[in-house]
Each structure stands twice: as C-alpha cells, then as structure tokens.
Amino acid sequence: MGIKLTLLIVFFAVMVGVGLYARKHTASVDGFVLGGRSVGPWLTAFAYGTSYFSAVVFVGYAGQFGWKYGIASTWIGIGNAVIGSFMAWVVLGRRTRVMSQHLKSKTMPDFFGERYQSKSLKIAASAIVFIFLVPYTASIYNGLSRLFEMAFNIPYEACVITMAVFTAVYVILGGYMATAINDFIQGIIMLIGIAAVIGAVLAGQGGFLNAVGELARIESDVAVTAGQQGAFTSFFGPDPVNLLGVVILTSLGTWGLPQMIHKFYAIKDEKSINTGTAISTLFAVVVAGGSYFLGGFGRLFDNPSLYDSTTGLVVYDSIIPHMLSTLPDILIGVVVVLVLSASMSTLSSLVLTSSSTLTLDFLKDNVIKRMSEKKQVTAMQILIVFFIVVSVILALDPSTFIAQLMGISWGALAGSFLAPFLYGLYWKGVTRAAVWASFITGVGITVSNMFLKYIASPINAGALAMIAGLAVVPVVSIITPKLQKADMDALFSCYDEKVVITKKRSLEQQ
To answer: What is the homologous superfamily of the domain 2-385 according to CATH?
Structure first.
C-alpha cells in the first residue's frame, strides 16, 4: 500500500506543478484554449493519443470486447492506429490548422459558424457538444474508480470526487498548455505501463504460447460460433460483423470529436504535423493495440466474482481489474498510475473542450455582450467546475456499462460533426441544410436508439450514425441552395497562399 500511495502522491504533485508552471499561458483566450497555437509535435501527438485512450479503453472496451472476441479484439487497436490516428492526421491535420486559423475559430462549433456563415449552427453545435460529452466523462470516472476500488479498497464515490478535484485544479490553473505538458508525461507512463502489464499477465499464465493454447480450448458462447473451440484465437474472432462495428466507431469516430480535432487547431507548423503523425500512430499501436491484446485473454481469468448475482450476466467493467488483482503491488501501482494518466488526460481535454465551447460559442455575444478576454477566461474556468460537477453526479449513479456510455457519446458527436467537418475542409459545395441534416441524423439515430433499441448495440448505432452522415451531407448539398460562390472562394483562398519553406521540407521539380 505504501508503494501505491507514494506513486499516487508523486503523480498528483507533478500534475498540479505543471498547472502552476503553465499559468503564464492563460492570460488570453487564445493562450488558455489553444496554447497560443504554438504547441510542438511531441506535445500535440501525445495530447492526441492520451485524449483518445482512457480508462474507457483500458478497463471498459478492452475488458468487454476482449471477452467477446478474444485475441481478434486486437484489430480494434490496429484500426485505432491506422484510421483513428494516422489517417486522421494525414486527412485532417494540415487543412484543419490552416482553415481554423484563417477563420479565427478556436472551437469546432465556431468552425461551423464561420465556415457555413450561420450563428444558429454554431449554437446548435455547442449544445450537442455540451450534452453528449457528459456521458463520455462519466464513463471515464466509472472505469477509473473501479480500478481504484480493486487496488486500494477506497469507496467508488471517494475515487470519483478526488479525481475530479485534481483534474479541475490543473486545467483551471494552466489551460491547454498544462493539459498538453501533462499529457506528454502521462503518455510516457502509459507506454511503459502497458508493456509491463502485458508481460506480467502473460507470465502469470505460463507465457504467451501457453496462454494462447489455453484460450483456444475455450468453447465459444457467441451465437455466430456457439460451441466452437478456437474461436477466441481465430483471425477475426467469433463475431466479425459486430467487431467491425466497434472498429468503425472507435477509429472513424475521432474524425468528428471536438476534443480530438481541437489538437490540430493548436499545432505549431508544417514540420510538427509530419512528426506528430508518426508519433501519434506509434503511440496508438502500443497503447490501443496493447490494451485490446491484453483484454483478449480475459476468459482465462473467468471467475464467479465477474458475474452479476441477480442477472447472472458478466460485468464487463470488472474483467480487467480482476485480471490485474493478482499482480505484485508495485505493478498494481504502475497500473493505477497508468490508467489514472490515461483518464485524467482525456478528462482535461473534455472539460476544456466543453467549457470553451459554451463560453465562446454560446455565452459570448449571445447571452453576454462585450465579453472581455479576462471575462471569457474566467467564464471558462467556472464552466470547467460546472461540467465536472455534472459529470460526477452522473458517474455516481452510472446507468450502463462503460462501453455503452461511450458509444452514446461518440455516436451523437461524431455522427453529427464528422461529415460536415470533413467535407467542409475539402468541398466548397456543402450547404447549411446539409449540416443541419447531419446534426439531426447523428443525434436522431443515437437518441432514438436509446429508447427504441432497434439496434441492439449502442456501439453499432454510433457507427451507423457516422456512416449515415457521410451519405446524407453530399446528397442534401446537391439538392439545396449553395452558399455564395464569392464567399466560398475567399474562404478557401487560405489553401492557395504562397509560403517559403526550406528544401529539406520540399523537393521542387527541376
């Protein structure tokens, strides 16, 4: 216990110390929200990766989908690395940075308002962000607190409140720059921790080959491959169709999540984008790939304590904590700090995104006229506290499994924003009506499915919402009135501006 507590105290002290160090960047709105658009590749790449992967992935998703699909769940991590990290940086990174600076937009709703010349779209987008980031935040508290209960026997409520307080302190003190520096530190911890935990868990099962052999003997209870041995060690697992739905939601979803896209707004320059792409992809391979690979061995730890005493169903959120409960104290301490790092980095990103969106896109000029820079920063700091309190209240009485909470959040946000944001960066022909149609489709499919349950899994419903948006936006854009051509030409002129760079960055034709 002494080792675990020491690691925690050092961790929290460093986080607060970074918040104090970064206070100098919080004097302006641009500094508080974007770090002055001067954040380098390593900090940005780690901020992207640590915002992507949290206790939701390590405890919730790795446990649930490792149990359902076996080692094939590793495909989810590979999809996260290739689609959610590499392709997101290549397709969105440079264009987002250039256009967001040209439009002087600091948030995703602000982008929609300026890009589509509509204040109503900006306000609607800010409402969607605030409402649907809450369940995601609650799911992170839930996942982390279950691990704390296992490691320290601390009540769930105390875990949630303690984590909320420390997150609020360093985000309020240092804004985006504090979260970026802390994300870098936390990312290093995550990389080391994942490698150590996988090695220790497999060693406890007699090594990798023995663990795979034992897993292959377990009969599948999935409807598609019921009774089949070896399904949990097969290439695509016992249920490839639903596995694909998880890959789409967790990989393509990042393209439409405001807390992820926000990282591209703040990056410094061209070189930083190229370097950040490589770092972010490698980070995802290790952290996401490692988490799902570890979860794939969950059935080797089958135990009566994993089942709900009333329903007899598996409590997925308990699988990973149970797997780790047999590790030595020092490794449990590493795991706790690992998941705490992943979770607090994601939480800080979520609360900063939500508070900045509400302040800059809703309160400023709509509710409060002539809002000074100082008042805007103060409002964001107050809203950070408000957002955390609301999330804590929801987390203290969670209604469903971690993965389902995240599915609802990602489905609504990415289902609404992915298509109009992606098309808006590349195509002048996207119309306001198409953006409204995407918002209605994303929120409509997610919310209606919560009540009607016409799609059994919220994960698959979220994936459907994203794909539907990608189809709806071009169709509606073709049949609805276009924005003024002159305005669109002026807006897209930012991509045609001439800049001078060194030969090492560009090899011109001779």
So the answer is: Sodium/glucose cotransporter (1.20.1730.10)
